Amino acid sequence: MAHLICEVVYRGIFQKNLASRITRGIVLSARKAGRWGIAFGRYGDSPQRNGIPAKDFAIVADSKEELEQHMARYEPKELHVTICVDDTLGKGVESWAWYGLQPINRLLLPDGHLLVTSTQSPDDLLKDIHTKDSPYHLWILPGKASFGGLWVYKEDHTEVRILGALAKIAPQFLSIDAVSEAIREAEWGSDLKVDSARKAYERIESRPVRITEGNPETPYAFELPRWWEMREGVTIPSLPIGKPIEGTKGYRPERSTVFKKFSTRTMRPVIDFDTCVKCTLCWLQCPDSCFDVMPDGLYDANMESCCGCGVCEAVCPVHNCITMVNEAAFEDNASQWEMWRRDKDAYKVWLTEKIQDKVHVARSHGFRYRGQYEEELASGSDLGGRPVTEGIPGENAEEKGLPSTVHVHESASIVTGIPEAPGA
Amino acid sequence: MAVATRPAPAAAVLEEKEMLISGSEAVAEALTLADIDVVTAYPIRPYDTVMQAIAKKIANGKLVAEYIVAEGEHSQFEIVKHASTVGARVFCGSSGVGWMYAMEAITVTPALRVPMIALVGNRALDDPGAFGVEHNDALSVRDLGWLLCWIDTSQEAFDTTLIAYRVAEDRRIFLPIAISADGAFLTHSQSLTRVPPKEWVDTFLPPYRRGDLLLHPDNPITVAPQVNEDWVIEIRRQNNAATERAYTVIEEAYADFRRIFGRGPENPWFEEYMTEDAEIILMGMGTLSLPVKVAIRKMREDGKKVGLIRLRWFRPFPHEQLTRALRRAKAIGVIDRDYSFGSPFGSGVVATEVRAALYNAEHRPPLIGFICGLGGREVTLEDVYKLTDICYAAAKAGRAERGTYWLGVRE
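Above: the input entities. Below: the structure tokens describing the complete assembly.
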């Protein structure tokens, strides 16, 4: 009697199909060895919303009876593997169905596995990932937060590379041969994708994480009210109006004490206060009222309230005054305006570094100019990934009248020399 | 005793295929094999996953059917109602408040003897806005003449959809059937499901023939005229007779299903799990059977004789079969994923029905209602252990201390 419970943490809409392909692939691969499984998502609005953290799960078990105890659940309470397909979620997860900030490794069992797609180093990732009271293994699959499976974007094989990696992590449940077979048979199947999975299987490596390692901060949490504490009639008291800042004309709106936004964003605005013309557009247009009006009339983006939508950058009329920068480049939610006021020269250095860091400036969900995606894919192959090839059939290939497999001659050598997987 | 009316296919050379699909997708698979003619759509979670799955089937050329996007749920049900009167096999569905918004159209469907199949993706009724499962939406048609059943796996979703068409379109019945599927736990989770070849389905499910009730120029009739007080009680009495006949037709359909597909329950009405020697019998509907079964297996290891009856059919209500099955129980615990405010003992709907069914029984064990898992909250093993202990205490005392307990409330 044995079972494997996997979670995929992803960004709503952008990675919805990617995540469901991964969990489907896990169940179909395990089925090749006669196991039973289910794939489901954390039910709610999150998968439908831009960038909101969401979760999919795959559970496989030796018998139907064993599987039963994991069915009719919203989410598993313990996991063997967490798969994180956007490394900015390494900071923790707040789903739209709100439970505070859940460390990315919180549900992992002792000696469990955390698999992250990232271009960061393990040490950089561990600056974000909260400490855990038991050791676990960190695996990094080199790559950016993927758009694979999102209608208009090309396949980048992330889903099969993860399946290949998983065959290394849990060979007793998914052998690489079973994974290959499942990929070939699934509706997104192709021989090229099988090669990608096998390559990931060969290359993936782990690093043990000790209990002392990681971000030592206590994650944000709160308690849900008891039935007799709640106001009747489904009423929730409104927020009080805001207060002036330091007795000036500055103004800070009152904000919810429980609804915070940390990992809901992939990008955050970085502001050059020296070039701001105080036009008020960012403050006016921000859908989350995240801007505080500071005593000098400048606007400071409050990081407990910002969800990273980028409207401020889009409406700002000054070149490079507001720049959206990848969340991975930051480790705290401190006020930028305070930093600027304290030491303007140091702030300038910090700001220049943030907005010029090419790796981090590249948006993971959305592009600055036509052709950026193609450029990124090309540079992605330098990181060990396989170049994306034209003609991947994708979902429903049969119905679209496209060939169901793509034959790439040079790929033949890749599949040789792979050792027999345990349990294959 | 059920009578099989259709033979198994002569040469079973075709095979079933196994698919990893959600409960909603399983329904769409069944609708494709049933070759429905008209389907209407208006989005609401969790039901929308069904309409998406059907849309995909049609777009991919797997199913030829009219797919009509209505401007709201009320129109959705009106459209299929009229399509059915001209002989189309129809499908429709909704969830929660969407189902309630369509209520005026839903109400008139049984009286017109329209055999439509609807899926209710069970969802809490607003306010508050919530997507999770509660059974009150579907239970609102309890007294309207709809037949009403609950499913708990993707496989049962597939099988029951075919059975529902077979029952509803039987000329002895001609009533709408609502199939209730728990939001999220069933509609949104994918499990391995066996899907048979079309030939088997064709053997099981004959074409829909409306006969003398067909609205057609060759058969000039009026459907739904003004009737005033002269006809109403007679119409109700007719509908009740059709509902009574459903007991026989449902048993026939399940017997044929078993013969043709080689699976399916002996007892269509409810699933019994470890009830043969059970002292405590727990009851409920839908996916809550999954945690309850796991809990029962664990409690059996501790020597507690607990069993489960999961109701499949709620209308018609299998009161005779149920009282027989409950004969040996020392206490009964009914878990309701619904409520009936101000009802006797403040019970849920199922507990009230079971109590009524037991009134004429010789053996009437203590019955306790439990309100649990509302709004989609998980029914946990701890919940089941706790309510079983309460049932044991009632069995020992020979009476229940309270009629209803609310479990899992933050207090």
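Note for the figure: The first strand of chain A starts at residue 3 and ends at 11.
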